[in-house]
Write a structure and sequence with these properties.
Layout (H helix, E strand, L loop, with lengths): L3 E4 L2 E3 L5 E7 L7 E8 L6 E6 L6 E3 L7 E6 L4 E6 L8 E9 L15 E2 L3 E5 L2
């Protein structure tokens, strides 16, 4: 059973930056397709970004494209989400998700395709 632990959330002003991290308790993240999702209060969970396994392509929600970057540190078995130019509507709890092996491109944004989830880290964008 892979356990995912997110960190790096907090309070940031509009226009600011944060870097979220997700570490895995076991396994090699390189063999997993990894994703970031978020859920704002009163809203459904939504896709943010994904990184396909074994150095595959990345994929972003239109709302974060050009502002957020998903990356892996394979040596530390850690996934990152660098967030810049943060908006108030980026406020949410951010979740790391994983699935061993591949997810086809058309399903990367489908939360049901991921079978491991972290507890989430809260990001608040406010002045």
């Amino acid at each position: 059973q892979v356990q995912l632990v997110e960190s790096g959330g907090g309070l940031v002003q509009p226009g600011g930056s944060l870097r979220l991290s997700c570490s895995a308790s076991e396994g090699t993240l390189r063999d997993f397709t990894m994703g970031w999702f978020r859920q704002a209060p009163g809203k459904e969970r939504e896709f943010v970004a994904a990184s396909r396994h074994r150095g595959g392509t990345t994929n972003y929600a239109d709302s974060v494209k050009g502002r957020f970057t998903i990356s892996r540190d394979n040596a530390k078995n850690t996934l990152h989400l660098q967030m810049t130019s943060l908006h108030r509507d980026d406020t949410a709890t951010y979740y790391c998700a994983a699935r061993e092996g591949a997810i086809i491109l058309s399903q990367l944004q489908n939360s049901g395709m991921y079978n491991y989830w972290g507890q989430g880290t809260r990001v608040t964008v406010s002045s």
